[in-house]
Each structure stands twice: as C-alpha cells, then as structure tokens.
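During the no-cost extension, the postdoctoral fellow (Dr. R.K.) reprocessed legacy sequence entries with the updated structure-token encoder. One reprocessed record is reproduced below for audit purposes.
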Amino acid sequence: MKTREIYDAVDHISEEALLGSAAKLISAPAVLFVVRGMILAHTLPVAISRVDVAINQDMKALQPQRGVSPLFLGYMLRGAAPDLLNEVEVAGHGTRRLQTEKWINLPIPNLSPDEQASAVAELEEIERTADEATNLTAENSMQAFEGSVLRQAFAGEL
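Re-encoded structure tokens follow.
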C-alpha cells in the first residue's frame, strides 16, 4: 500500500476464486492496514479502500461503524503508528507482525461526524503543507546538486 486511498489494485480476484476459497470481499469503504511483513520494521501502512477489495492474511480491514468516518479512523491509526510499531514482534524467520491484541483496543475519540470532518480537514491541510515543504526542499536540494556538478564539470574537476 503506497497510497492513502485504494481505487484499484495490480492483482484482482475472480468470482470463482472468492467462491472456492476462504477469501472474502470487503465492502468499501474500509480502513486497511498491514499487520505482517518486513515493512513493519519502520512503517505502518494505512489506506482507505474506495472499492471492494479482498486482502490476504498480512492485512486487516476495519469497516467503520455508522457515524465513524473512514478518513478519521485512518488518521487515528496513522497517529497511533509509533506506539503500534513499538508493539511489533519478530517471528522466528525474521518477519514482523502486529498481533491483534496490540491494536484491537486502541482508543478512538468519540467525536460527532462534524467534529470528525473538521479534524480530517485540518489534518489534510497539515499534510498538504508538509508535502509542499518536502517537495520544495527536494527541488532546492536537486538544484544545488546540479549546480555543484556543473561547476565542477566546467572547472575540469570531474
């Protein structure tokens, strides 16, 4: 999961496979997060499915109760990521895993739908500002690097 919202996937499951296996189709919207894999050594991927999905045993899906925004729930999980990552265990073969009992009782603030929407809007604005700052910093670093290389090239130092 490399995006915050899932609209499609590389792999798709057929109706036949759904009927002939333990796989289940999870209705959108759902909050998806990784509970097993090496990525848990440093990151807790969280995304909102905007389409029905099937997931494997390395992920969990939360379907918010009525009155709970999936975006709000997703932000709450991302906010809890540092604490959850501290609870990640290492399996015998080195794979990381986050046991259900470590996340199942996470406290989620009981906010009205309007309060949730307001919190989400504020968090999205903070993310936009952070993304803009990151992009500007990366662009400035690249320009500085390019200028340095060009100076060295014209000075015959390369």
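The radius of gyration is 21 Å. The mean pLDDT is 88. The remaining legacy entries will be reprocessed before the final report is submitted.
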